[in-house]
Amino acid sequence: MADTLEFNEIYQEVKGSMNDGRLRLSRQGVIFKNSKTGKVDNIQASELAEGVWRRVALGHGLKLLTKNGHVYKYDGFRESEFDKLSDFFKAHYCLELMEKDLCVKGWNWGTVRFGGQLLSFDIGEQPVFEIPLSNVSQCTTGKNEVTLEFHQNDDAEVSLMEVRFYVPPTQEDGVDPVEAFAQNVLSKADVIQATGDAICIFRELQCLTPRGRYDIRIYPTFLHLHGKTFDYKIPYTTVLRLFLLPHKDQRQMFFISLDPPIKQGQTRYHFLILLFSKDEDISLTLNMNEEEVEKRFEGRLTKNMSGSLYEMVSRVMKALVNRKITVPGNFQGHSGAQCITCSYKASSGLLYPLERGFIYVHKPPVHIRFDEISFVNFARGTTTTRSFDFEIETKQGTQYTFSSIEREEYGKLFDFVNAKKLNIKNRGLKEGMKQSYDEYADSDEDQHDAYLERMKEEGKIREENANDSSDGSGEETDSSFNPGEEDDDVAEEFDSNASASSSSGDGDSDREDKKPAKKAKIIKDRKPRKRQPESKKGKDPNAPKRPMSAYMLWLNASREKIKSDHPGISITDLSKKAGELWKAMSKEKKEEWDRKAEDARRDYEKAMKEYSGGIKADSHRGDRLKKKKQEKQVKGKGDKKGTSSKSSSSKSPAKGMSDSFKSKEFVSSDESSSAESKKEDSEDEGAASPPPSSEDSASGSD
């Protein structure tokens, strides 16, 4: 027979609500871990007194009674699991697992039995319902009536608030059955009564949640917060965890995690957060004699103590609650602090990476354990590139986004997440990255970073593509600017307006050399800036595809085989199974797929070179076509303007002889650049050659 039995999706009944979790039975005892809170219930095998198997709403249930009167209920079993559990109880716990059905007659008259911390209402030998007396908040009596009031349960949609029992009078003298009933209830009920003096009192402590200043009175079994408006009584049994976190401004924050939470109207506070100044000291005297202090606290506290206020509160709470205090581990941010400044929802706060989870302070406080994290993700900031977002998704599907984290914190946080073996999105569960958390542990070496290597490889490819595209765009920019042509135009324009002396020609040539050079420099600086957005266009569909890794090549080849070996397997389970097979594969087989991946990479690099060469060739071809088109346009304009200048010169030879000679280039440039010269030319033509002119007729007769 197996030494352990494990059951998933088992529900523990606590205060009327069903909390799901995992149940494990071993030789040593029974362990249940709550999936929501991470709280662990551990029942030693020697403490078990009775085990009952019965039919309940969620299938079948198991009720365990301990020798000290505690009752534990677990539901969600299948009927077929009874034999397995029964044999296990006989072999390891020496207990007979009894089958006992509930009474469903619907009668309201029966017998009340008190057993340990359980009130059972029975009809005959069958129980109708059971009430854990720890759920009772108040018990009042009437003439022949007892009223039980219950703690409100925030997790349940409907809560039972009150039950009344009619107790008939008896003939026995000296015994009041109503008072006897009430005393049996009150002896086990969770009724908080501030009787006696407090062990110690801390005055005017600053609370962040619930906000305000409170006096904290420390009693043996509960904590009393007394404020100007509200009072809270917190039993130590509801305290899950204690935290002591250093603030960036050298103050200290003391966290108390509560389940169930304290209530203020409709608001629920799952955390009690106290804020202390680091320099504030206190001298504390416990309201107990030294013998009582030594007997109760076993040296953890003394009657007279002094020191920092936060240290005194921490020592007292640790001794009374009997839970360790969690402090930040080895993590240090960019600024040397043990926390990271970030924003959650609309509020700015601090994120503390702890040894077993993350905690965010403070509005609202968030505590996320590593064992409930599915994966984390480092995302680009939505508003600026100077920050990034840190996303956490839990196994229940809840997502937390901590935004506006400084870019300098990325390296430290990434190393921390990597060291804790948390899954990073898009990387998956790689070899050697499997989580090493004990699933039943109380939630209180460097690896090869495949994700980072992949990012580097993609960055190299993007850089190569960017260089290729920048080469092509540079050639287009150069082709659109033709210094030679502009030099010629400018030189002729200056020559036409200058005298024939060599000195003026030299001066003009100097100006010609300077002006185009200056113009070229300006254009070269500006053009790439205009063309910069072109690099943001989508990928070319004709570009070669990046090569796959060795794992992806193997997965594509083995996917059908895995499906045939495991019919009906889901995509998620298939990926997990493939990861396990790849991890278990021998080194020789992996090397074979590594060689294939290397061949694919070489083919990709070869195809990429050919693709880049084709882009450059297309760019040169386009430049040549563009240049030819421009030359044709210039030539066409020159021919048209040349004919017009001929006709004007033949019509007015006298005018042409009197003025200095003007070339056709001067005319074309003069017409395109100056509207006034056009006007003058048209006036000159009108004065010299009115239609029909006498000179034209004379030449015709000749």
TrEMBL record:
One of its GO terms (cellular component) is FACT complex. InterPro entries: HMG_box_dom, HMG_box_dom_sf, PH-like_dom_sf, RTT106/SPT16-like_middle_dom, RTT106/SSRP1_HistChap/FACT, SSRP1-like_PH1, SSRP1/POB3, SSRP1/POB3_N. Pfam families: HMG_box, PH1_SSRP1-like, POB3_N, Rttp106-like_middle, SSrecog, SSRP1_C. The keyword Nucleus applies. Residues 531-543, 631-642 have a biased composition (Basic and acidic residues). It comes from the Eukaryota. Residues 496-506, 644-660 have a biased composition (Low complexity). It is found in: Nucleus, Nucleolus; Nucleus; Chromosome. Residues 516-530 have a biased composition (Basic residues). Residues 544-612 bind DNA. One of its GO terms (molecular function) is nucleosome binding. Residues 473-495 have a biased composition (Acidic residues). Residues 458-549, 609-702 are annotated as: Disordered. Keywords: Chromosome, DNA damage, DNA repair, DNA replication, DNA-binding, Nucleus, Transcription, Transcription regulation. Residues 544-612 form the HMG box domain. Belongs to the SSRP1 family. Component of the FACT complex, a general chromatin factor that acts to reorganize nucleosomes. The FACT complex is involved in multiple processes that require DNA as a template such as mRNA elongation, DNA replication and DNA repair. During transcription elongation the FACT complex acts as a histone chaperone that both destabilizes and restores nucleosomal structure. This is FACT complex subunit SSRP1. It comes from Regulus satrapa.
